[in-house]
Amino acid sequence: MNSLSVAISPCPNDTFIFGAWVLGLVPPPAGRDSRFFWHDVQELNQGAFAGEWDVVKVSAAAALRLQDRYTILPCGGAFGLEHGPKLVTRRDFRGTPRTIAVPGLDTTAVRVLDAALQGNFTPVPMIFHAIVDAVLAGEADAGLLIHETALVYDRYGLILHTDLGRWWSERTGGLPLPLGSIVARKELGDDVHAALAGCIRASILRARADRPAVMPLIASLARELDEATLEQHIAAYVNDFSLDMGPDGQAALNALQTLRDLS
């Protein structure tokens, strides 16, 4: 039986969700072996558009565009409740940001930023962990931060310009912000999709029950290495919507689909 190719990011919420599966601590889906690949979120988006993997963590905005080829699984995604992407500037910056360093043009963060600023900026795409240095060096007026860096921007002497999680919540009546989704090839079929969802849920529950078993993997791949930041990141983006997005999660995806109507 063919193995499954599974591509995710090395950020703490993904490695927490998939860690027990990666480490073989839960039964594999449908009895199939899995090969894991680690990539930046924009690389994952681009790879999914090219059809490179069977199961992929992508930006929720990209997942909506991939539905002709992939099925969005009901679990494993990242939904922000109190946190989301942050638009930050240098302390000495004045005025309206015109050039903004962003973590890839296909990300949910850029889609929400585009609606919030009504498209009045020039994006400068780069890998997410290069954004802080680009802003500090004056290569862009502002930076759009995601993952754990968005939680500790003040550590780098940056200040908050726009909290996109708050912007989203105010315009959707408090819906969670769908940041990332897990998608699986349609041709795998409903039975394998169900098995994948079961494996992902089992992996989350195992990680919750036995954190020491997965934390070394999480720490080895994270950009911010201190334990408090890792725990803050996991708490921010792994929640009950990761186990099952349910009706509110689907409503959030629907709102993201028609995002320009919110601005």
Mean pLDDT: 93
- By secondary-structure content and strand pairing, the structural class works out as alpha/beta
- SSE run: EHEHEHEEEEHEHEEHEHHHHH
Shape: globular
Q: What Rg, in angstroms, do the CA atoms define? A: 18 Å
Helix content: 40-55%
| Number of helical segments with 4 or more residues | 11
The major β-sheet equals: 6 strands, mixed
Instruction: Give the strand content.
Output: 15-25%
End-to-end separation: 48 Å
Number of strands: 11
Unreliable spans are: none
Short summary of the structure?
The chain is of the alpha/beta class and 263 residues long.
What does this structure look like?
By secondary structure, this protein is an alpha/beta fold. It is 41% helix and 20% strand. Strands 1, 2, 3, 4, 5 and 11 form a six-stranded mixed β-sheet that branches. Helix 1 (12-22) crosses helix 7 and helix 7 crosses helix 8 (211-221). The chain is globular.
Comma- or semicolon-separated keywords:
263 residues; 11 strands; six-stranded mixed beta sheet; five-stranded mixed beta sheet
Write the layout of secondary structure elements.
Blueprint: E1 4-8, H1 12-22, E2 34-38, H2 41-49, E3 55-59, H3 60-65, E4 70-72, E5 78-80, E6 86-90, E7 99-102, H4 108-116, E8 122-125, H5 131-136, E9 142-145, E10 158-163, H6 164-172, E11 177-185, H7 190-209, H8 211-221, H9 227-237, H10 240-243, H11 246-257
Parallel strand pairs: 1-2, 1-3, 7-8, 7-9
Antiparallel strand pairs: 3-11, 4-11, 5-11, 6-9, 6-10
